[in-house]
Structure to design on (155 residues):
């Protein structure tokens, strides 16, 4: 269902044909990089956090992780990931397919600075076996981002 919502969204933008659906899993950075045929860093992973009781998404490069002091400085609270079994109910996509497109209304999306070093990245497209290649400008537009943040560090 989630893949279909993302396909419908990109169909309305005449970009549906750019969504890739794989016969194998792309639910982790490593699996997605293999399926897409790119370096893991170019997989745009979408992480889901609680801020108070609100879901917030942060899209990062595939080779970084959240830097807790930076996160706390930016959002004024400790980073608290949404437990896997609750992600779909808060965000609209299940783990492995979480992406910044066609999310539940009111879920803010932020893009991490770690993505800016790439011209093209590959976020999931709503399922654990899909991706879409987007330029950074397209990612900004289609994620309806609230803005850029610097909350990550190299792994």
């Amino acid at each position: 269902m989630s893949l279909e919502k993302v396909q419908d969204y990109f169909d309305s933008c005449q970009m549906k044909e750019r969504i890739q659906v794989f016969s194998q899993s792309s639910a982790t950075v490593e699996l997605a990089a293999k399926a897409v045929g790119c370096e893991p860093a170019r997989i745009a992973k979408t992480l889901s956090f609680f801020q108070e009781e609100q879901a917030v998404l942060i899209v990062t490069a595939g080779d970084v992780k959240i830097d807790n002091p930076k996160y706390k400085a930016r959002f004024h609270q400790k980073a608290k990931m949404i437990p896997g079994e609750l992600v779909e109910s808060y965000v609209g996509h299940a783990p492995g397919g979480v992406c910044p497109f066609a999310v539940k209304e009111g879920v803010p999306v932020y893009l991490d600075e770690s993505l800016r070093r790439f011209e093209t990245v590959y976020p999931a497209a709503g399922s654990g076996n899909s991706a879409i290649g987007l330029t950074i400008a397209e990612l900004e537009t289609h994620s309806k981002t609230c803005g850029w943040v610097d909350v990550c560090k190299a792994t």
